[in-house]
Amino acid sequence: MYVLGISCYYHDSSAALIKDGVVVASVEEERFTRKKHDTSFPINAIKYCLGSQNIGIKQVSHVGFYEKPLLKFERLLSQHLEMFPLSLKTFLSSMPSWINEKLRVPKTLKKRVGFKGDILFIEHHLAHAASAFLLSPFDEAAVVTVDGVGEWTTTTLGYCKSNEIKLHKEIKFPHSIGLLYSTITAYLGFSVNNSEYKVMGMSPYGLMNRQKNIYYNKLKQVLDIKGDGSYRLDLSYFVYHYKDRMPSEKICKLLDGPIRKPESELDQRHKDIAAALQMVTEDVLTKTLNYAYEITKCKNIVLAGGVALNSVHNGKILKNTSFENIWIQPNASDGGTSVGVAAYIYYTLLGHKRINPMKNAYLGPGYTTHEIRKFLDDNKIKYSKFKNEQELISTTSNLIFRNKVIGWFQGRMEWGPRALGSRSILANPCNPEAKNLLNSKVKHREKFRPFAPVVCAEDALTYFECDEPIPEPTDYMLMVYPIKREWRAKIPSVTHVDGSGRLQTIRRHQNALYYDLIKKFGNLSKIPMLINTSFNIRGEPIVCTPHDAYRCMMGTGIDYLVMGMFLIKRKDNPKDIWDSEKKAID
Fold it and tell me: What's the average model confidence in pLDDT over 547-551?
């Protein structure tokens, strides 16, 4: 039995396919269109999912959609009527997309995919909850979902057991900790629904002290937090419920200055505001989680929703709550709801016995040796071929040890926003120049942003002050932990300003080639750890195809591309012979 899940028309459109209860394919539309956070109907993602199993749409038993459009449209009408005439401009600008797309999902599926059956719509936060619990290793768990907004809901908590999900509490729009985070993200000059993680990464540069940071107390003025984690925003500080922008004049006055212009200098005030926002968010989330434990008395917690990607807070959950075990959907934002609705249909609505449906996140497209060689030959790219995997690992580890930057393109692409060793850029964490080199010449991004370390799971406790046993979400780079003091100076390019690192752990059964490369590098450096950052440049999605990978290398300071069994040196291939538009390979 095949079940297809779809998410689209807001941000991070995606598709996911479940076969007999196992997730066999899932991918975001952006990886194909090369438009970051693509909102469009995920036709390419759907075609990939079906093609990965060599089936057509007629072999799909059920199709599910990640929210209820009519309920969301009701909220849109309600908020605009309430705020009329202030909301007239945004109301009129939003209507065409609703009339032409968002209310026509069944028609679009029939026309573009050929699916003629009934489509099952479930509520947005239920799709989040299903993506977290039904794909987790737990038979029972408390569940918390937090994002900007679904149809009406912005935050939920509940209890899950076996195949059932019960959401007992919710907070509704316009009160949203996710939208507060996005508002301040916009105030700090970054893009909404894209750069919240930048603000999180900037927060340690600010004053992380609740008594001394004046902006912490200022932000608390706009948020009334109760003891159980419920909250209400003072809406006089916000305009997102009736305008097409987020920061208001009143919040600018509260924070002592105008909205920062993108790319302008970040001063200490900006950094202190980022720190204050992170602390306020953690206050809300910690109280919510403690209340979830209080009403469920369950030792397991699962999380989803865009705010569940806040890895700084995630690393503190087991320490600051009574929960003992945690699992977070690797694609916790809206992209992950496609797999959530598919799992909900298969396990909850159809009542199948739960199995472990998601053993890793390598669920996207992969390319054979023949396909990669054909791409290289057709485009007259100079390369050499490794004799075997042992030579690949030995050569690559030596290059990294010599401080070369490697584009690593292996196997099936990762699911979610984090590169996990299939579409990664790898470098030497012991090299004190690596961070600045990667930020300025490879990723072309802000200098303050940290890079993540990857270690084999059994080595993590040597270098990090982790929870024990190490939680599974570290496999998906979803938790930040302190690096042990004795190692910080030895791995400067993955040690953030506060001494922390966003840890990725890897187990050999998940990705043997990646695991063995880390171990081999450790034999050379005496520290079995690599810098792992996503294979892309600022403003672009993670690379998907051989064409994407080669184009990215040629436009950056990446020294070598290790693609399948082939080694490509950037300096051997003059950039001016590459015409990315004419020679792109589908």
Answer: 96
Please check whether residues 7 and 118 belong to one and the same domain: yes
**The total number of residues written for the chain in this structure:** 586
What are the E-state strand segments in 279-428?
300-304, 325-328, 384-385, 406-409, 423-427
In a domain, 445, yes or no: yes
Alpha-carbon distance 314 to 317, whole Å?
5
Q: What are phi and psi for residue 258, nearest 5 degrees?
A: -75, 170
The Cα 57–Cα 50 span in angstroms is 7
Q: Whole-angstrom Cα distance, residue 55 to residue 224?
A: 52
CATH number, residue 573: 3.90.870.20
373 in any annotated domain: yes
Domain extent for 423:
369-577
Return phi, psi of residue 346, to 5°: -70, -45
For the segment 232-258, the average pLDDT, to the nearest whole number, is 92
Question: How many Å apart are CA 244 and CA 225, to the nearest integer?
Answer: 27
Statement to judge: residues 96 and 235 lie in one domain: no
The band of 581, judged by pLDDT with boundaries at 50, 70 and 90, is very low
Domain C-terminal end among 319, 349, 379: 349
- Pick from 441, 437, 426, 429: which is nearest to 392 by CA? 426
Is residue 109 domain-resident?
A: yes
Residue 279 sits in a domain whose CATH number is 3.30.420.40
What are the pLDDT digits (tens) for 49-105? 999 999 999 999 999 999 999 999 898 888 878 888 887 788 787 888 888 888 899
What is the total count of domains within the chain?
3
- Residue 146's nearest CA partner among 159, 156, 132 is 156
- The token pair at 279 is 């602390």
Q: Residue 582 — pLDDT band, cuts 50, 70, 90?
A: very low
CB 566 within 8 A of CB 385: yes
Using CA atoms, how far residue 256 sits from 230, 249, 252, in Å, is: 28, 11, 6
pLDDT tens-place string over residues 163-211: 999 999 999 999 999 999 999 999 999 999 889 999 999 999 999 999 9
